[in-house]
Amino acid sequence: MLSDARFRLPLVLVLALLVHTTVLPSFRIAGVMPDVMLLLAVAAGLEGGPMHGAVMGFAAGMLADLLLSTPLGLSALVFTVVGYAVGVTKGGLLRDTPWFSVLVAFGASSAGMGLFAVAASLLGDTHVLSGHLTTVMVVVGVTNGLLAPLMVRLVRWSLAGSTPSRAFVE
Amino acid sequence: MLTSITVITLDFRDQGGGALEAVRDGARDALAPLQSFASNVFSPVGDFFGGLTRYGSLKDENAKLRAELEQARGDSLSSQGAERERQALLELMRLDFASTIPAVAARVVSISPSNFQNTVVVDRGSDQRLAVGMPVVTGAGLVGRVQQVSRTRATIQLLTDRGSSVGVRLTGSNQIGVASGAGNKEPLQVDFVATDTEVKAGEVAVTSGLQGSPFPPEIPVGTVKELSKPPGAIQQEISVDPSVDLTRLEFVKVLLWTG
């Protein structure tokens, strides 16, 4: 069963969601926790390119949205854009380095948090745009960056032999 | 992207109701057993990492608890034994406020996995007559209010959430103001108290319960911690420490009260 990406992908998504909702809320630095759902999108963009990044971003974001009280679809939109952008960035790179995933995860996660805050404020949650946002962007960037090598390996395993259409449409 | 935008639009148009909210509630109920199981499995890991990130405060707290333990040892010599301790615990659980309002006890099962919201989830929902807007308390005072409800779960917006605000009355000076959340572990900020009024540190803030207020009157909210009157300002800067330790909630009571 685990040889098929159609099972591995949902498994990784649900596992990430459970870790995100049960373990990580206790692991806060300056009141901020890592965002592994966003990291999933980043890792999929790094490993599979823009389409995988976008599809994984949408799925991870929608799952996260189901458990939040922010507008449904907001995380899905932001994570889709981030996953796609990371895939495009990776595609345009000539040479990879061991630190690349860490740096991209730092930048993309920080940008993702900023984008989320801007989008949420446009929909009426104006309190999200406060001084706290800078702390969120820095802490999520650093912690997601540190977790990136692990997440990239996990996503590499889950995506092996899959295309977005096979994994999510079939 | 189009799907996301469509979902956002539909959700925004329905304003927390409609088919999408039903999907969300259904997903929450479906995931609840899985989350509870995972929470039990992962809680030692979470506690370990939580302890690492709170090392400094845990060290201070350990020293404080040791001091309190010494004090308690001394006190216990003069106590009347186990029965008296039991009565004290029962007293702690008794609500001295809102005693005429029916309430449902609930256990906190998870903290919000969000960096922008300050909420917790409890193991009671619409099956137990919980509804959006109901006040949530402990024996020490106000915790927040119900923000979302599914059949078996409810999300509680804590007082410290940046989107939370509650009308308060300062019991010493009898001034009315609005206490807003400023984030996790941060004191509440009270607005609309004029500079020409005399407010003292240590005054207790309770819910004002004015007409239209989402909270019943006289529920303890917190204690005035600091205050200042900046030159030229038309209102005082008042910070209030919540009377309930919102970082360590285990059990709460949801008041079946909707204004």
Question: How are the elements arranged and paired?
Answer:
The complex is a heterodimer of chains A (170) and B (259).
Chain A: H1 5-22, H2 36-48, H3 50-66, H4 74-91, H5 100-122, H6 132-159, H7 164-169
Chain B: H1 2-14, H2 18-53, H3 55-77, H4 82-93, E1 103-111, E2 119-122, E3 135-138, E4 141-149, E5 154-158, E6 165-170, E7 175-180, E8 188-191, E9 204-207, E10 220-228, E11 237-242, E12 251-255
Helix pairs in contact in B: 1-2
What this model shows, in words?
The complex is a heterodimer of chains A (170) and B (259). Helix content of chain A is 72%, strand content 0%. Chain A has 7 helices and no strands. Chain A has a single domain (5-163), classed as Arp2/3 complex 21 kDa subunit ARPC3. Chain A has helices spanning 5-22, 36-48, 50-66, 74-91, 100-122, 132-159, 164-169. Chain A is mostly helical. Chain A is globular, with a radius of gyration of 15 Å. Mean pLDDT of chain A is 85; it is low at 165-170. In chain A, α1 (5-22) runs antiparallel to α6 and α2 packs parallel to α4. With 259 residues, chain B is α+β, with helices and mostly antiparallel strands. Chain B has 2 domains: 1-78, no CATH class; 103-259, Rod shape-determining protein MreC, domain 1 (Thrombin, subunit H, Beta Barrel). Chain B is 32% helix and 27% strand. Chain B has helices spanning 2-14, 18-53, 55-77, 82-93; strands at residues 103-111, 119-122, 135-138, 141-149, 154-158, 165-170, 175-180, 188-191, 204-207, 220-228, 237-242, 251-255. Chain B has a 6-stranded antiparallel β-barrel with strand order 1-2-5-4-3-12. A 6-stranded antiparallel β-barrel of chain B has the order 6-7-8-11-10-9. In chain B, a hairpin with a 7-residue loop joins β1 and β2 (119-122). In chain B, α1 (2-14) crosses α2 (18-53).
Radius of gyration of chain A: 15 Å
CATH homologous superfamily assignment of the largest domain in chain B: Rod shape-determining protein MreC, domain 1
What's the CATH class of the largest domain in chain B, please?
A: Mainly Beta
Give the CATH topology of chain A: Arp2/3 complex 21 kDa subunit ARPC3
